[in-house]
Amino acid sequence: MKNLKLLFLLIFLLSVNGYAQKETSNYKTSKKEITSLMLQQAKDWSDGNLEAFMEGYIKSDSLKFIGSNGITYGWKNTLENYKKGYPTKEHTGTLTFNLLEFDQLANTVFLVIGEYHLKRTVGDADGLFSIILKRIDGEWKIIADHSS
After folding, report:
1. Tens-digit pLDDT profile for residues 30-86
2. What angle do CA 111, 36, 115 make, to 5 degrees?
3. How far apart are CA 144 and CA 49, in angstroms?
4. How far is CA 30 from CA 8, 25, 39, 76, 99, in A?
5. How far apart, in whole angstroms, are the C-alpha atoms of residue 134 and residue 145?
6. Alpha carbon 88 to chain centroid distance?
7. Rounded to an integer, what distance in angstroms lies between the CA atom of residue 105 and that of residue 19?
8. H or E element: which one contains 64?
């Protein structure tokens, strides 16, 4: 009986260890994919292509963008706000991100906290952001963005 208990304990520990390794592998892959998305967004922004930049966001009315002017709901409204606030290449400038923290909230949901740096002729801008991303149809999409 004692050997049977030890066997079950060993099987349990091995299965937990296997699960943890799988989560770590999933975490690393997801972090790499999200970082790639953010690098592409920075490039698109720096090219002055706000529509391409917005491809990193969920194309839905459920998108939430929280900034200094309050909450904006929806992909289209968020894009329109970007176009108003950054009407020319001088305003979009060159964007870089410093990704500080990646927290996996669920298998398909991440919280990413970082800094943004905008170098431009009309005056540089820097700040912090937190974004929530969800894996949808095999792609990471930002579903909420809080930038300040």
Report:
1. 999 999 999 999 999 999 999 999 999 999 999 999 999 899 999 999 999 999 999
2. 50
3. 21
4. 33, 9, 14, 26, 14
5. 12
6. 25
7. 16
8. strand 64-67
With a CB cutoff of 8 Å and minimum separation 6, the contacts of 133 are 34, 37, 109, 110, 112, 140, 141, 142, 143
Look at residue 23 in the predicted model and tell me its pLDDT.
52
Query: How far is residue 39's CA from residue 46's CA, in Å, rounded to a whole number?
Result: 11
User: Which amino acid would we find at residue 23?
Assistant: E
Helices (H), 47-130: 50-53, 75-85, 89-92
Which domains are delineated in the chain?
A: 2-147 (3.10.450.50)
pTM, rounded to two decimals: 0.83
